[in-house]
What does this fold into?
Amino acid sequence: MGFDVQAVRKQFPALTEGAAHFDGPGGTQVPQCVADAVATALTSAVSNRGRSTMSERRADDMVHAGRAAMADLLGADPRGIVFGRSMTQLTYDFSRALAKTWQAGDEVVVSRLDHDADIRPWIQAAAARGVTVRWAEFDRRTGELNGADVAAVVSQRTRLVAVTAASNLIGTRPPVREIADIAHAVSALLYVDGVH
Ligand SMILES: Cc1ncc(COP(=O)(O)O)c(C=O)c1O
It folds into this structure.
């Protein structure tokens, strides 16, 4: 089955200007159905989430429907889906929460291939807890970050590895499964930036 590029492009009103956008930060250039769903949510009678009043139920149902749709897309459990203002804000939230479990002498791993949104929150959380930051270097000739590049800076003290699933700058895609295995082998968590 062919990929109908024109049909897909037509779903994105922002593309009618004719420009090619090589970056789509902060949920820009969304398809019409997303814009419609947001407009419906903003113009519906909603209140705090709950099950007592109509407006509470509507708000609650919207949140659950959004989580279920994202879980369907990702093949995940809806109870593990969280929406936030942005990837940067969510990463700050995660880093602050996880840092409470870190101790001085622990280590976190970030990569030079990553967007700053998946680096700065971890550096700041590490500094607040006396935790060492280790940098995984990518191959400057190929732009690839390989499992071995990450393994070189992972140790028994590693608590978390933060890595992008794709570089927003050059499009290379690290082997996330392999990096997950490297992190999990030392009981570290893996945090993946899926923006791109
Ligand atoms: C790879 C990557 N990660 C994270 C971000 C930050 O995303 P947000 O704007 O949702 O904070 C961007 C934004 O361009 C990005 O390109």
Observations:
- The mean pLDDT is 95.
- Helices lie at 5-10, 32-43, 54-74, 87-99, 120-129, 147-151, 176-185.
- Residues 23, 25-26, 86-88, 115, 117-118, 164, 168, 193, 195-196 surround pyridoxal-5'-phosphate (CB under 6 Å).
- The chain has two domains: 5-80, 87-193.
